[in-house]
Specification:
- There is one protein chain.
- The chain has 167 residues and is of the alpha+beta class.
- It folds into two domains: 86 residues, GIY-YIG endonuclease (3-Layer(aba) Sandwich), CATH 3.40.1440; 67 residues, no CATH class.
- The strands form two sheets. A three-stranded antiparallel beta sheet has the order 2-1-3. A three-stranded antiparallel beta sheet has the order 5-4-6, with helices on one face.
- 19% of the residues are buried.
């Protein structure tokens, strides 16, 4: 592909997909799509190889860099492009999960399952999710011990004694 063959690119955040026919070669993100994509034609190594192998470029405009990061990660996991080697691993962004039980729990998980629970996320920073969970735990008396299955206890847990758990 040549620089002249590119579609008109905006100077906004987004995700771009280099394609060869229907196959996706590479998925990337950018603060400025126009600047990032045109840099492929002036680079060397993998960047130049991708721009020469590609026959088409698609792009998706997003609101900000965080949304671009999340979309890029999801597209890489879904399509598994040849040139994206870093995000092919099995890492997932964290979610908050509220279990669907008689005494629900709020948990930080990395995989969404079809289990009747409510999920919020994904969140790009695990530390932010943990801070949110601590804040929710402080104000809402949800069950905090995993107790699968519930153990018969002589006394309720310490969180119940402090009014932080419905026990």
């Amino acid at each position: 592909m040549r620089l002249e063959d590119l579609p008109p690119l905006p100077e906004t955040p987004g995700v771009y997909l280099w394609k060869a026919g229907e196959a996706i070669l590479y998925v990337g993100k950018a603060k400025n799509l126009k600047a990032r994509v045109t840099s492929y034609f002036h680079g060397e190594g993998k960047s130049l190889r991708i721009s020469r192998e590609a026959t088409w470029l698609e792009f998706i405009v997003v609101r900000d860099e965080v949304e671009a990061l999340l979309l890029e990660a999801n597209l890489i996991k879904h399509h598994r492009p040849h040139y994206n080697v870093l995000m092919k691993d099995d890492k997932h962004y964290p979610f908050l999960k509220l279990t669907h039980e008689e005494w629900p729990m709020l948990m930080v998980v990395r995989r969404v399952q079809n289990d009747g629970a409510r999920y919020w996320g994904p969140f790009p920073e695990a530390s932010a999710v943990r801070r949110i969970k601590r804040l929710v735990d402080r104000f809402f008396p949800l069950r905090q011990n995993s107790g699968f299955p519930f153990k018969k206890r002589r006394y309720p847990c310490l969180n119940h004694a402090m009014g932080r758990c419905l026990a």
